[in-house]
Amino acid sequence: MVPLLARVRQSYEQMTLPLGRFCMRLGLTANMLTYLSLALSLVAGYLIAQSLFWWGIVGILLVGLADVLDGATARAAQTASVYGTVLDHVTDRYAEFFILTGVMLSGWVPPIWVIFAIFGMVMASYVRARAEATGRIASCNVGFAGRQEKLGLLILGLLLQPLFPQVAILGWAVIMVGVASHLTAVQRLNYTRRMLRK
């Protein structure tokens, strides 16, 4: 099972090339946009920690936009590199940590569930990285949910929580992110076992 948004990756990459060319004309590089994405995630985490959830959502969406633009710029400028890929994955993990730490500091979700979600997201990413590092698996981007789907769940929780303050919607969203992440880690581990046995 491939995450939903990963299935349309090729079409999405073609559609975003004009954005990459536009960034090139502005003098932006892919790595600059990657660092911008990281900085925006820190801002988003701060806004969420202050319980400014809707502004936090704007911050998360800007993080996603910068993440799209860095890949598009690398493809448009033909500067895609192994280091750029590693940098992108590392900053993605930091971004997830900043955003979820903001959720924890807001006081709306018990810390144990935030830790559960963060650990699940890290493990899903770690299993994929280790599987692909064997050199025998081209891509281990499989499983119940990718990064975009999990951030979508979190955004939904942030959007609805202010509308229904008496219901722990954000807490349940974080729990679902954690469950989806751990399931994805297990699915990727199982996929790796099957592929290495062939």
UniProtKB/TrEMBL annotation:
GO cellular component: membrane
UniProt entry keywords in alphabetical sequence: Membrane, Transferase, Transmembrane, Transmembrane helix
Record Pfam families: CDP-OH_P_transf
Superkingdom of the organism of origin: Bacteria
Transmembrane feature ranges: 22-46, 52-69, 97-122, 163-186
PROSITE patterns: CDP_ALCOHOL_P_TRANSF
GO BP field: phospholipid biosynthetic process
UniProt GO molecular function: phosphotransferase activity, for other substituted phosphate groups
Family: Belongs to the CDP-alcohol phosphatidyltransferase class-I family.
Name the record gives this protein: CDP-alcohol phosphatidyltransferase
